[in-house]
Design brief:
Strands 1-7-6-5-4-3-2 form a seven-stranded antiparallel β-sheet. Helix 1 crosses helix 5, helix 2 packs across helix 5 and helix 3 crosses helix 5. A hairpin with an 8-residue loop joins strand 3 and strand 4. With 250 residues, it is α+β, with helices and mostly antiparallel strands.
């Protein structure tokens, strides 16, 4: 869960980018594990609902489940690079459900940071977030807690429900990085712990926002492909909404 690369260092990517959007272009790489696009689209809808519930680079000796998870993430367009961290702490490097992605946003870093840390206003720009409240007063800081809700549509193995997520900020560095974690619990659906990392780096053309997230829990680990696709769909939706809103307020 730690990294030797400082969270505020440049984070160059080998992935090609779209000149119009600044987003990393995605696609299935040769040799990666694939599954039907219709199935991916279906589970991505779940990801939109569980957008930020809670990928890192693989360890030197990965388990078969971790290897499968990485291949699925690559099939969805998440190509892993060096691990990121916030004050030396990152996502759960033992988790088999993981995803990472990034986007370049043409807006001031202060605007992006405000949107991301003013959690009570998330419902105003993130459709999947139904409610959000701070559980403590004062500035957004290490130890801050917030509770928010998001709908989760039915899947072949779980009913439609509303997830209640209680997140605790584990690390934060102003306008540089955030790490939070916590459970997501709904009727018939539970994620024991999600760990979510964000880093923000000024680059030519704006700010590169990088996000990584892992999920753990017996229920979601019982179906790694579906959970990985859901997580990936949710993170991509979050980045898209953040980019759209920040650039509109530029």
């Amino acid at each position: 869960m730690s990294s030797t690369r400082p969270s505020n260092s440049p984070n160059p990517r080998s992935r090609p980018t779209d000149a119009r959007t600044g987003r990393s272009r995605t696609g299935v790489r040769p040799g990666s594990v694939t599954f039907p696009l219709a199935a991916a689209a279906a589970v991505a809808a779940v990801g939109v609902a569980v957008a930020g519930v809670l990928g890192t680079a693989p360890s030197a000796q990965a388990s078969p489940g971790q290897a499968l998870s990485r291949s699925l993430a690559q099939a969805l367009g998440a190509q892993h690079s060096d691990p990121s961290a916030c004050h030396g702490e990152g996502v759960d490097n033992t988790a088999v459900i993981r995803y990472e992605s990034d986007v370049v946003i043409d807006a001031p870093l202060s605007t992006i940071w405000k949107l991301q840390t003013d959690v009570e206003r998330w419902p105003s720009w993130q459709p999947p977030v139904l409610t959000s409240e701070r559980l403590d007063p004062g500035p957004f800081r290490k130890g801050s807690r917030f509770r928010w809700t998001t709908p989760a549509p039915a899947t072949p193995s779980t009913p439609a429900t509303t997830l209640e997520v209680t997140s605790t900020v584990r690390q934060v560095q102003r306008q540089s990085c955030i790490l939070w974690s916590g459970p997501a619990i709904g009727e018939g659906l539970r994620i024991d712990e999600g760990v979510h990392l964000w880093t923000f780096t000024k680059v030519r053309g704006g700010v590169r926002v990088h996000t990584e997230e892992t999920w753990t829990g017996a229920q979601v680990e019982a179906d790694v492909p579906t959970a990985t696709a859901a997580l990936g769909g949710g993170l991509e939706a979050w980045l898209r909404d953040l980019k759209t809103t920040a650039e509109r307020r530029r």
